[in-house]
Amino acid sequence: MSQTTDNPFLNGLWKESPVFVQFLGMCPTLAVTNSVRNAIAMGLATTFVLVCSNGLISAVRKQVPNQVRIATFIAIAATMVTITDYVVKAISIDIYRALGPFLALIVVNCVILARAEAFAAKNGIVRSLADGLGNGLGFTLGLILLGTVREVLGAGSFLGVSLFGPNFEPWVLFLLPAGGFITLAFWLLVFAWYRDRQDRKDRLISAQQPVEARS
Amino acid sequence: MNESLGHIFIDSLLINNFVLCVFLGMCPFLGLSSKFSTAWRMGVAVIFVITISSMLAYGTNQLLVAVHAEYLRLISYIVIIAATVQLTEMIIKKTSPALSRELGIYLPLITTNCAVLAVALFQTVRNYNFVQSTVFAVAASGGFCLAIVLLSLVRERTELSDIPSLARGTALTLVLASILSMAFMGFAGMGSGG
After folding, report:
1. What was the ipTM of the complex prediction?
2. With contacts defined as CB-CB under 8 Å, which chain A residues touch B150?
3. Each residue of A64-76: pLDDT tens digit?
4. What is the pTM of this model?
5. Cα–Cα distance, B35 to B16 (Å, whole number)
6. Interface touch A177/B21, C-beta < 8 Å
């Protein structure tokens, strides 16, 4: 376990990243990350919903009876998602088509409900907003990391700009579902390897210190 | 839209498998697939919930279209799903307390299984009639059940094999899911004829 700071924003952004540590919202994570542009759009839409729903839930948390809280949280999230759905449709019909049903499915993204239940229902408005923003941006960051690998390998481009020239044979597998699973698995392995290395380094340093003190 | 029922069934069960090809219902797929016994029970519970909620969602959508209130679709679907899950929970608790203990917290979590909402949304977008919707719901949820059972069987075997400690846990599950997904890509050719 990495130590957690008291800053809800930083916790959500990296230390407890929704994608790589909490494993929340896996469906959109894997489904829309076949290009960086989609990943950013999805991440920002989720961030917007998360910030608004966290803020609202935190504001009404003392009025809502315990038994109906989940239903209330979902109703609030569904309202926010409906708003986002229409806003995205108005801004860019291309992105709307690319995200497809996953835009409406933000409402059942477990990140929303998990943050509502675990954080917004117990904390004040400002802290809940910070938690929503941190988790939302952490989610976006995770999506961008996945999207970058998949777009560069699968289409030979980044944000639609071709990287390797016309002779590059795209590795189509990475745009397909199987590529999504394997990319996420490899990111997890990279992080696990890094954490393991850090741990061993720390152990090595703490093992050496008493020796140096004696000599 | 007048796709044949057989085509809808094969398409959503195998070719566009909800979990392995469309990425829906990932959370229970990754979270509940460590044991075969829990996996198939979860699969059956999901089939039940999806089929019932799909029928109810079809009726509700007709009603919403009749009164020109389509913007309420998302919220009403969510309420229907939550109610169906509650109903399933009560039925299971009454008929089989052991199963209810086994599924525990995951039963109410079917509410946030995106596959349930996705079935309701897809059947609306694709303009399926009532029979088509029901077949679609059964096939899609059957696909979920199939995928989670397959993964749980493979995971039970990997429990006994020698795997580097770094890769244990979610990373390994994802690699297995990826290989399963590649296997399901083989079904893609079946769709072109339909």
Report:
1. 0.80
2. none
3. 888 778 778 888 8
4. 0.83
5. 25
6. yes
